[in-house]
Automatic annotation (TrEMBL), chain A:
It comes from the Eukaryota. It is found in: Mitochondrion. One of its GO terms (cellular component) is mitochondrial inner membrane. The keyword Glycosyltransferase does not apply. GO terms for molecular function: small ribosomal subunit rRNA binding; structural constituent of ribosome. PROSITE patterns: RIBOSOMAL_S18. This is Small ribosomal subunit protein bS18m. Keywords: Mitochondrion, Ribonucleoprotein, Ribosomal protein, Transit peptide. Belongs to the bacterial ribosomal protein bS18 family. InterPro entries: Ribosomal_bS18, Ribosomal_bS18_CS, Ribosomal_bS18_sf. The keyword Transcription does not apply.
From TrEMBL, chain B:
InterPro entries: Ribosomal_bS6, Ribosomal_bS6_sf, Transl_elong_EF1B/ribsomal_bS6. Keywords: Ribonucleoprotein, Ribosomal protein. One of its GO terms (cellular component) is mitochondrial small ribosomal subunit. It holds the Pfam family Ribosomal_S6. NCBIfam families: S6 (TIGR00166). This is Small ribosomal subunit protein bS6m.
Length: 130, 110
């Protein structure tokens, strides 16, 4: 056992190392010099692809009242909040502004949803009773 | 010159009268130094709510979209003129953005 220790010490002195500090000579070499146990810096391999909101690549226009009507309540015509529509900040603002614009200009009804668009698919995470 | 869009709602009238009203509007624009680019007809539709204008209650309207280039100083005068026109139910002038800057940059998704 003692001779083995002595052999290890000799090996560390004789073979050339990059850091020839005193520390590496005294401590057993297998722990410090082994590169396989060290952490490798790399980006997360399990990262999920970044998903955007529903309107990510869609231009919002005040004339497109069918699209805008998907973000209002069918009973009262109120604009749904961000926690219901699931849109990102920018798109929520654009939709909100476009709805108010269309309502002011006489394109979209204010107090209700146009009956023609009642059967449109539900994007927002809200469940109506009937 | 900046680009504007006039969303015009005219009273429901017979075809020759609608044509005359549109002609009047376009000529007013051109007199004031605007360059009309495009005139679209969005059809005659039921208004989303009853609009009362010039002592009349309107239920249906003819929707038109007029693209034009104009200097910004004539817009107020133009809107004033359109509000006084008896055949016009609701005029709205909007600035038109260049399509390049509209959905530019990253919008939260790839």
């Amino acid at each position: 056992m003692l001779s083995l220790r002595g052999l290890q010490r000799l090996k560390s002195v004789l073979t050339p190392h990059r850091n020839t500090s005193l520390r590496s000579l005294t401590v057993s070499s297998s722990l410090v010099q082994n590169k396989d146990n060290m952490l490798v810096q790399m980006e997360n391999p399990y990262k999920e692809p970044q998903t955007g909101c529903v309107l990510c690549h869609v231009t919002v226009d005040y004339k497109n009242i069918q699209l805008l009507s998907q973000f209002i309540s069918p009973h009262t015509g109120r604009i749904y909040g961000r926690h219901i529509t699931g849109l990102c900040g920018r798109k929520q603002k654009e939709v909100s502004k476009a709805i108010k614009k269309a309502q002011a200009m006489g394109f979209m009804p204010v107090t209700h949803k146009h009956p023609q668009f009642m059967r449109d698919p539900n994007i927002c995470s809200i469940k109506h009773l009937n | 010159m900046p680009r504007y869009e006039l969303a015009l709602i005219l009273k429901t009238m017979q075809r020759p009268e609608t044509a005359a009203a549109l002609r009047r509007t376009v000529e007013t624009l051109m007199e004031r130094g605007a360059v009309v680019r495009n005139l679209e007809n969005l059809g005659e539709k039921l208004l989303p709510y009853k609009i009362s204008k010039h002592n009349q209650k309107h239920v249906t309207g003819a929707y038109f979209l007029l693209d034009f280039y104009s200097p910004p100083n004539i817009i107020i005068g133009l809107l004033d003129h359109l509000h006084r026109d008896v055949d016009v139910v609701r005029p709205t002038v909007l600035k038109k953005d260049e399509p390049g800057s509209a959905v530019g940059g990253s919008c939260c998704g790839p």
